[in-house]
Amino acid sequence: MISKIKAQSTDSCIGQESRTFTFNCRQSALLHQLSMEIAAIGGPQAPGANFLTSAAAKELKPSFSQDQCALLEAYSDSLFSVLIFEGLKTINTSNPPDELPDLATLETRPDVLCLASRNQILLKLVDNDAFAYDLDNDGKLVRLVANFKGGGLTKIKAEPESRELSSHSGLALGPHTEAPYWCAVDAKDGHSPSPSSLILSALWNPTLEPTRVIPLPPVLERIGVINCLALTTENFQFTRSDSFVSGKGANGRDVSILAFDDKVGFSARFNSYRFSVNSNVSKFVKTAYSALCQRVEESTPAEYALTQESAMVINNTRALHCRDVIKDNRRVLVRIFGLSKFSTPIVISEDPLLVQG
Ligand SMILES: [Fe+2]
């Protein structure tokens, strides 16, 4: 049976790996007002949004209790895997249309801009800066996660023959961290690190389809120290992501899955449907890779069904996430990537923040 994140905020099998931050009415009203102000200038993609976001975080913080501040700080220090925000205001009570509008139409809706702006502020509360890669999602900060390209349980109007394996399709996505996969904290060989965090909220999720998370610390404990050490060797390869801009990004080789890091302890990069182990490696490395894949497959993901009243920040260097096939094509999530205070990206432009992938 799949465990519920909500019930696990303090004591359970994955214990402190997932925690809940609940906004009270006053805090939530202020967050809503500040989100609307950023949405009014065009949302996270607009020049000036980052400045307004910092100001919003500064304005909100004095209203938080000591416990709330401690929770934000612990996430900011990368000490656990998932932070759920609850008690958020409903943005739009109207029902979703039977068929989704196209991506460009959806992206400019005031409710989407408001949710995206709210996500940007929530990221800032945990010292993460919203950003985009030059080579991914057309260089845009906000990504709408929905079945635009087919592959869901129910066919869409323009169901294509071949489906891309990305968050723009309806296909099930196996356990993964977000690309790029070259490094996770410090830039390397001209590549910025993978996202430190991703934040998700839902515009519509009519049948409460869950987002699933697999924190890695229990998995790594189970596979043991020798296997973990073998996963730090640069003996793994990955295939190019389908969300990359056409002509940019490529398959990668000779990367590690785990790395020790002075600032966050360990960091991970892994994708169950894109990674593989190099063929000419020792039996130790092959055994370690099989052990990881097997333990990930056997793990019981924690699950959470997002709505407009909640948001989920996932630590992308410490946890995998996944989802089942999309059952209701009206489901739309709003996602943004965040870079933590520990991350050292290669910056292309500051406002909005664009980094080299
Ligand atoms: Fe993902």
Commentary on this structure:
By secondary structure, this protein is of the alpha+beta class. The chain has a single domain, classed as 4-Layer Sandwich (Double-stranded beta-helix), CATH 3.60.130.10. The chain is 25% helix and 23% strand. Strands 2, 3, 4, 5, 7, 15, 17, 18 and 19 form a nine-stranded mixed sheet that branches. Helix 1 (25-40) packs antiparallel against helix 2, helix 1 packs across helix 5 and helix 2 packs across helix 5 (110-125). 47% of the residues are buried. The protein binds fe (ii) ion. The site of fe (ii) ion (FE2) has 4 residues, from loops. This is TauD/TfdA-like domain-containing protein. GO terms for molecular function: 2-oxoglutarate-dependent dioxygenase activity.
Largest sheet: 9 strands, mixed
Q: Could you report the average pLDDT, rounded to the nearest whole number?
A: 93
The CATH class is identified as: Alpha Beta
Shape: globular
Bound molecules: fe (ii) ion
Helix content: 25-40%
Please identify the structural class as seen in this structure. alpha+beta
CATH topology: Double-stranded beta-helix
Cα distance, first to last residue? 38 Å
Instruction: Give the topology string: H per helix, E per strand.
Output: EEHHHEHHEEEEEHHEEEEEHEEEEEE
Regions with little confidence, pLDDT below 50 for 5+ residues: 6-14
- The CATH superfamily name is Clavaminate synthase-like
What's the structural domain tally? Answer: 1
Number of helices: 8
Q: Please report the total strand number as a whole number.
A: 19
The proportion of residues in beta strands is 15-25%
Keywords: Oxidoreductase
GO molecular function, one term: 2-oxoglutarate-dependent dioxygenase activity
Protein name: TauD/TfdA-like domain-containing protein
